[in-house]
């Protein structure tokens, strides 16, 4: 649930220190969004055979660094469809394979991964149908690009919108996609003071939002519940608890994204 870099330790263990990975269960369908360091523990909880889909928002290190340690990919009994945006003329398969090459990693993806993998490009305007589950992407405001996703299943919906900086036309596109969703998982890395430079150097242009921006996004889209996500790695459990109390004064139906936190819709 952390942004930028894992932050393990005694002052972060309640919320968790791993970088982004979100599991969405829709009946028998398994969907995973991003492969930050949190995907290692997720993989350890699974047993073969598995049939799932992995969706990447973008390919910054904190969103891909756990993929080589996702043990279900080492088992030939498993099958995954992998979706991600094409960036810089490179497909999702090319980009992910590029992370697992010398001198960055000792073995290649082609050598290590035994699961049956299918790679699919995805972009705003496309839609993926997975056995009654619909996944719809939208382009967010982030350096190098980032996709947000809406998942619809049997009248319930969740929107995953991490790594978005508020204040551009992307806000309206996201509001349209997230309209009426049951849950919005949204980037809330900074406070307004941090973002605007009243507390430390300004964070404008860094590609992340504030809790105030998260509340505005949730209200604009009319979502039922907001989950604050992509916590600053320096934010302690006590800091996050204080922040949540502040946010709930203006939007009571808000939760703090935590590791291994189940939310049923």
What's this entry about, in short?
By secondary structure, the protein is an alpha/beta fold. It contains eight helices and twelve strands. It has one domain (22-256): Metallo-beta-lactamase, Chain A.
Structure, described:
Helices cover 23% and strands 25% of the residues. The longest helix is centred in the last third of the chain and has 14 residues, at 237-250. Strands 6-7-8-9-10-11-12 form a seven-stranded mixed β-sheet. It contains eight helices and twelve strands. The radius of gyration is 18 Å and the shape is globular. Helix 5 packs across helix 7 (211-221). The protein has a single domain, classed as 4-Layer Sandwich (Metallo-beta-lactamase, Chain A). The protein is of the alpha/beta class and 265 residues long.
| CATH topology value | Metallo-beta-lactamase, Chain A
N-to-C SSE series?
EEHEHEHHEEEEEHEHHEHE
Give the DSSP E fraction (strand runs of 2 or more residues): 15-25%
How many helices does DSSP assign? 8
In CATH, the homologous superfamily goes by the name Ribonuclease Z/Hydroxyacylglutathione hydrolase-like
Mean pLDDT: 96
Radius of gyration: 18 Å
Could you name the CATH class?
Alpha Beta
Shape: globular
Protein structure class: alpha/beta
Give a short account of the largest sheet.
7 strands, mixed
Measured between the Cα atoms of the first and last residue, the distance is: 20 Å
Query: Spans of 5+ residues with little confidence (pLDDT < 50)?
Result: none
